[in-house]
Amino acid sequence: MGLFGFGNSEGKIERLKKKATNKFGQAIERQMALKSLRQIGSSEALSALLARFTINVDVTITDQDEKREVYDWLVEAGERAVEPIERFVATHDGVYWPLKALKEVAGLERAVEALLIALDRAETVEGRVNELKVQLVSNLRDFPHPLVLERLKKLAHDRHDEVRLMALDGLMTYGEAEALPVVAERMLDPEESPRIRSVLFEQLVDHGWSFAQWKDRLVESNVMPSHYRFDDKGCIVRSR
Hints:
Number of helices: 13
Radius of gyration: 22 Å
Structural class: mainly alpha
Distance between the termini: 68 Å
Largest sheet: 2 strands, antiparallel
Shape: elongated
Number of strands: 2
Strand content: under 5%
């Protein structure tokens, strides 16, 4: 059948999925399996296509090309891809391309809703480093939305360094008025890590935002390295 056919068995889809997600198999076999799933076009086949995002093959160019192609096919499938994508995002890692496809097919609001639900799930994962949470937070910057802004401000105070770093980086995309008060709070927090402060100093230099409101407190805290200084406008610049 064609792209929108539904006459293929569940067993065939499962066999194709196994081939499509074999990271050690031949690229041509993996790609043929992906194309067959696209031709089947059922909800189950689209779910199997999405499974391609759960693996990374060693050849980076091939890996990205295949993922980009699956993304294109999900967009091509349109509304029928929405439910499989939402199920995938709620239960799997590797959500960058699926969320991108969901945004294209169903709009920003639907994609943000799915992303925040996935993030809620990640919040329940225990572990020294919550890799799923870090991955999801790194994706937030691609979905400008008031709810995302609210979540980024909260995540800027997360207990994990990597989560805070990703959240602060995403927050910077919302501009000086939204980001700077939170950035200042992190820089002045005596518990903040030197690594994150170092990144924030560099970002403030690059953005050229005025830190005048917090200048005295920053000087008193003695956390600004000697290779930075304040200019006449209260902006942090590199010392000559």
